[in-house]
Design brief:
single chain, disordered N terminus, alpha+beta, 5 helices, disordered C terminus, 292 residues, Protocatechuate 3,4-Dioxygenase, subunit A
């Protein structure tokens, strides 16, 4: 498969660095109101496991840091680059392992539940009740439905859920692969409401979830279908990744479970004001393979 930079290195470096500076300014200005917020310091040990469950942090009433805007990549399926799966009947679903509509394919891989707890940082970190999350990621071969070789007629591993009274959404999926040039990750967009999501209107937040190294290694060793992921993982790190390389504290998930019975990816997402995320996320990367 051939992947192209959409905007070029100069644009992407400027956009991503400017976004980070804006987030630093936002964090400083909001310190008094969000006194409990902190992001910690990234260390190599963070790559293998989060120190505590982000879901437990949210339950304790502690504000989390705002999750930064990231690229949607070249395969969002949201109408910004080719097909728009958001406006299709059936996209609102909890189980995203199978395709829907006229497509009948199923994504193979280690069963995985992706659980997200949304905090509205503009409302004293209250649960973001009613916000909608569009989530998508690659299959076991590192390909994306609607775009990948031989799966342009499939729409699996894509779906929308609406946050409940606790601000939570949950998706039944598979564990994402590690393909060449990128750290294992999951894409998502947060919309103000389900109506906004299925209309394909501007997302309040576009970002990515980083999956811890230890969990990735365990899954890839267990399932031979992820054989290429093991080699790819050995050639990349969070620090060298062209999306997470400038900081990943707010984007690193906690993973529990066993491959034989299923994995669970959990994370709390701090959603800042819409004005903090109005700049379009770049679809290219900071050098190297374009982020997907």
């Amino acid at each position: 498969m051939t992947h192209d930079h959409d905007r070029g290195l100069g644009h992407d470096m400027t956009t991503m660095l400017s976004r980070r500076r804006a987030l630093l300014v936002f964090g400083t200005a909001s310190a008094a109101a969000l006194a409990a917020c902190s992001s910690g310091t990234s260390t190599p040990a963070v790559e293998t496991a989060a120190s505590s469950s982000s879901a437990e942090t949210a339950a304790a009433g502690t504000c989390v840091a705002a999750v930064p805007q990231e690229t949607a990549g070249p395969y969002p399926g949201d109408g910004s680059n080719g097909p728009n799966v958001l406006i299709e009947s059936g996209i609102v679903r909890q189980d995203i392992t199978t395709s829907f509509g006229s497509s009948t394919g199923t994504a193979d891989g280690v069963p995985t539940t992706v659980s997200m707890t949304l905090q509205d940082l503009t409302a004293d970190c209250a649960p973001a009740v009613g916000m909608a999350v569009y989530l998508w990621h690659c299959n076991r071969d590192g390909e994306y439905s609607l775009y990948g070789d031989g799966i342009t007629d499939q729409n699996y591993l894509r779906g929308i859920q609406v946050a409940d009274a606790s601000g939570k959404v949950s998706f039944t999926s598979i564990f994402p692969a590690c393909y060449s040039g990128r750290w294992p990750h999951i894409h998502f967009e947060v919309f103000e409401s389900l109506e906004a999501a299925v209309a394909g209107e501007s997302a309040r937040l576009t970002s990515q979830i980083a999956v811890p190294q230890e969990a990735c290694a365990t899954v890839f060793d267990y399932d031979s279908g992820y054989s290429s992921s093991t080699a790819n993982l050995s050639k990349v790190s969070l620090a060298s990744d062209n999306v997470f390389g400038d900081g990943w504290d707010a984007e690193l998930a906690t993973v529990t479970g066993e491959p034989s019975s299923g994995m669970e990816v959990s994370i709390t997402i701090g959603v800042a004001a819409a004005s903090e995320n109005t700049a379009a996320a770049p679809s290219g990367g900071m050098g190297g393979p374009p982020p997907r």
